[in-house]
Every structure is written in C-alpha cells, then in structure tokens.
Batch of 2 targets.
Target 1
Amino acid sequence: MDQKRRNFLKVAGISTLAGLGATTGLGRLFEGAKPALADNATPAHAADNSGVKAKRYGMLIDARKFREDPSLGEKVVRACHQVHNVPEFPEKRDEIKWIWMTHFENAFPEQPTLYPDHATETAQLPILCNHCDKPPCVRVCPTQATFRSADGIVVMDFHRCIGCRFCMAACPYGSRSFNWRDPRPFIDESTKNKDFPTRTRGVVEKCNFCAERLREGKLPACVEACGDTKAIVFGDLNDPTSELRQMLKQNHTVQRNPSLGTHPSVFYIV
Ligand code: SF4
Ligand code: SF4
Ligand code: SF4
C-alpha cells in the first residue's frame, strides 16, 4: 500500500470512528444506497417505519440448469468479472473472486450425503456473497467500509477499507478476496469497464449484487449472462408477487450453512 493511500485511509478511518463519515470515490457510487445505521447489526428494513416494507434483494440459483449446460458457469463468471474489472492474476494464491464455480460438497457442507449421485458429485454450481440479512462481515468492520444498504445489499466502500481483513475472518462463506498485489496491471484493457472503479493493493472486494447496474434499471450481469434460461432469478424477497418469491414458493430451495444464522439472501434449487 503506498504512503498516500495509507495517509488517506488513516484519515478516513479516524473520521468514520469520530462519526464524521465523509465518503469519497466509490462511496459516492453507492451514496443513494447508504443507510444511516447507528447499529450495523440491525437490518435496515427493520428500522423502516414508513409502513411500506423496504426492498430486500435476493437471488435464486437453479443448480440443475448449470448441470444441464456446463458452459453457463463460465458465462456468469466472465460477465461478472469483466463488468467489475476483476483482475486475472497468474498465481492461484492471489486470485480475486466475485462469483465462482464449485462442487456441491463445498457449497453445502451441512448437507453431506454418503452416496452422492453422479451429477451431484461431478457438477459445479456458482457461489458468491450471500448478502446475508445478519452479516457478520458488517459487524466486525471497524471503518464501515462494509455496510448493509437499505435494499439488503451488503456493499463496500473501497476507499474506507484499511485492509484489516476482519471481514474475511468473519465471513463463513469465503466470499471475500484480498488484493495482495496491485490489481490494475492484471485487468484486461480490451474489456475494461471504464465506468466501474478499479481497486488497489490492500483492499478487500466481493460481489455487490450489481448495485451500480440495479440503479440504472439493469439486471445483475450474471443474471443477464444466463439469457432466458432462468438459471439465476433476481428480485425482491419482500415482494410476495415478485418472480423470485413465486419461484421460491414453487420449488424446494436451500441456503448455504443455514445453521450459522446469517440468513443468506441467495437460495439454491439443487
Ligand atoms: S456471505 Fe460473507 S461477505 Fe457476504 S454478507 Fe454474508 S458474511 Fe458478509
Ligand atoms: S478489510 Fe474488511 S473489515 Fe477491514 S476495513 Fe476493509 S472491509 Fe472493513
Ligand atoms: S450479482 Fe453482480 S456482482 Fe454479484 S456475482 Fe452476479 S454479476 Fe457479480
């Protein structure tokens, strides 16, 4: 981390702790979504007293579709990582992941089966940040670089991140990545998204449920990449008429590690 950045982070951290809360850069990108939360552990919609329940964005991933068409996995990862300028480091140990493919047993360690069928054993499904309703990562972040917005999205203000990695230790899903190296030289210039900020060494990052795209009325990039397959359905968990809620009503779904009490907003049909 360079000296200029260290100085900035020091000031930003102190300002935050002092309650001054100045936001810059990406912070401005998420300005509209940023809650005035006194208590990070309190879900934003719980404090809503308008009589109208706030949105709580959620996602349903149909693992069957990813088994039927293995090319879908690559499509969603590429779409997400391109649109968010996720670097491609040559070494696995430096890897930055916003969404990635994994086997059933890694995604659902609480639901082991002694004799898995062939498809369960071999196929992969996408995993990402669960945008938990009770996110431990938010609770431990000392600078509020990670916070839960009023629409249920657990977002990051990269400029406030001091790289302490408390959030990585607290997230039981391994949904966060740390930039051990300067990521900028490892972003493909030919596909770079000029409208989305790049990060720097010493900063944590993760899926943001495409908050910047939602604001423009677009679907998340991974959802769009699935075309009309309905392999991923996105919507408002608080709206009983939403397609997402209808799908949840019609299908048996599971969440990752429900016993941890984090209340993930990502559901799976397995
Ligand atoms: S999955 Fe991890 S990073 Fe995402 S909200 Fe939950 S605890 Fe935080
Ligand atoms: S590393 Fe995580 S916990 Fe630490 S400041 Fe950054 S977002 Fe917050
Ligand atoms: S919702 Fe957006 S940020 Fe999250 S995995 Fe999908 S494309 Fe990436």
Target 2
Amino acid sequence: MIEKPTFMIGPVPIFGDLILAPMDGITDLPFRGLCRRLGSAISVTEFINTLDVLENHPRYPKRHAYEPSHRPLSLQLLGDQPEQFLSAALQLVPQVQPDIIDINLGCQSKNVINRGAGAALMKQPETIAEIFRVMTGNFPQPITGKIRLGWDEDALNYLEVAQAIQESGGAMLAVHGRTRKQAYRGQARWEPIREIKAALTIPVISNGDVRTVADIEHIQQLSGCDAVMSGRAAIGNPWLFQRLDRHEVPAQMVHETILEHLNAMVSFYGGSGVITFRKFLKAYLSEYDLSRETLLMLLAINTTQNLIDGIGEVFDAYIYPVQSLR
Ligand SMILES: Cc1cc2nc3c(=O)[nH]c(=O)nc-3n(C[C@H](O)[C@H](O)[C@H](O)COP(=O)(O)O)c2cc1C
C-alpha cells in the first residue's frame, strides 16, 4: 500500500508532522541525522549565510552537509537582499541539491539584524515578497519561509508577511510565536499562528516552546497547523520525535543514543567532535541527578575512547542502579 503524505510542500511529500527546528551550532549533519532517524519529518540545515557562500568561506560547506537518508533536505539561507539570495543560491543549489529552500526571516542576533537580515526583514514585507518572487522564479524547488510574529509588540505584522509570502509563491511557512524583541524570553504565543493558518492555503508549521508530547497536541489543537517544529527541547530529548517525553526514555536507550551521536560527531568532525559533543552530552545527562564533579569529569575528557569509557562508568555507577529502583 502506498503511504499517504501527511502534507505537501509544493511537490514534495512530507510524511509526519513533527520537525526538528533549525538551530545554528546544533542542527549539523550528526544531529539532523539522529533526529530524522527518530522521526523528524524534514531535515532543515542551520542557516547558511549568503555572504559566506559568495565569499567562499571555508566554514559553510559543513553546515549543509547531509546524507541521502536525511532527505527531504531543506537548505536554509540567511541574507538581506533579493539579488544576494539569488546569487548565493545559484552557486549552492546545484551543488547541494536540496528538496526545499527555506528563507530565514526570524534570526534575532545583533550582527544578523544589523545587516538587515533574519528578523529585520519582517520590517520590509515588500523586500520579502521580492525575495520569494526572485527565488520561485529561478528554482524548481519549493521556497519556504520561517518567520516570527513581527519586530516588536507595535509591529505584529505576521499576517501581512504571511500573505506576502504566499502571494509571491511561497510553498510553506513556519512561525515562531515570538517577536524579534522577545528573542527567546517569555512564553511563545500560539494563537496568532491560528490566524495565519486560517488566512493561508499553503501549509503552516507552528513553533515555539514545544517541549513535551502534550505540547505537541496542544499547539496542534490551538493553531490548526499542518506540522509542529521543536528546537531546544530536542537537544537532550531527540526521542520527542518518537513522541516520548524525556522521563519516559529508558536509560539503556539514552546510553546507546549518546554513543551513536558521539560516534557520528567524531566521524563528521574528527577528534574535535568530542569537544563539540559536550553541549549535547550535558543536555542528555541533565535529566539525571549527577553530582557537579561527575559531570565536570565527563566534560573534561577529550579523547573518544576515554569518553565512551567514562560515560559507561557513569551509567553503571549512577544511572542504571537508580533506574532499576523505579
Ligand atoms: C541556538 C539556537 C540557534 C538557532 N538557529 C536558528 C537558525 O539557524 N535558523 C532559524 O530559522 N532559527 C534558528 N533558531 C530558532 C529556532 O529554530 C526556533 O524557532 C526557536 O528556538 C523556538 O523554538 P523552540 O522553543 O522549540 O526552541 C535558533 C534557536 C536557537 C536556540
């Protein structure tokens, strides 16, 4: 029997309604691959800075690396001018061959907005429309956007921007329910996403503060969205894509996944993968009541085999015994 897609992004069928949100410094090949295996329906890259592409900066090719099993791949671009998106994409798209191209309209960091990119574009719906017209006119891939609710409380122009994107050929919209000014503070608002969904015919993805299985159901009910994106909660709980809350994941599974993720990091980055893995290890272990000394001991290890051994010792001494008492 042919499985029916959950929804379509242009011509691309999407199977599943839960997606790992793109995160700079986090959603690299190893983590995207792990989350895709656990059920994330799309692999979205960290943002790729159009200026890096145009300057052939050595840092960017690793950011869009992927394996065939990670498809559908969405290549996220961050820039400010329509021509800049076009030039960077003309260089990158034939090489990367993504299934989807995503435009970052939500990044709030100072250096990004100071150059008029990311969330700063929310202040210029006409420029956003032009970016979508130019990109849809030049690439067969569907062009999607990821927005915030607006610049600040006085400029909640999410409906205007959403409509501009749809009218200019956008094939899907992901919405983080905060303004640029809020950054990551306060609670994300999910009700405005319902207004966007009601106003558009293209798929809408809800995002912001989805941490648990109950949150997934709640945001779906409240917003009527086609899919849900989760970011920070997935660091430490990639099993959310299997619809498991963190406390439901057996210690054995956590241990195995930590080793799988660590090995993938070392294969991808070489020896420095052990260091880059620390932020994930800390998040995986935050569920357990480990002493500060134990955690610091693990986080100071800088060779792969020593870290594998250290993790094994910590699970044997502190985590498996407690789990078996539950
Ligand atoms: C460390 C970090 C890096 C991020 N990088 C990106 C990015 O590259 N592109 C993007 O569209 N959003 C980025 N975001 C925003 C997330 O995709 C998401 O919208 C936000 O974290 C809210 O979702 P959450 O509450 O599930 O984390 C980033 C967020 C964090 C915390």
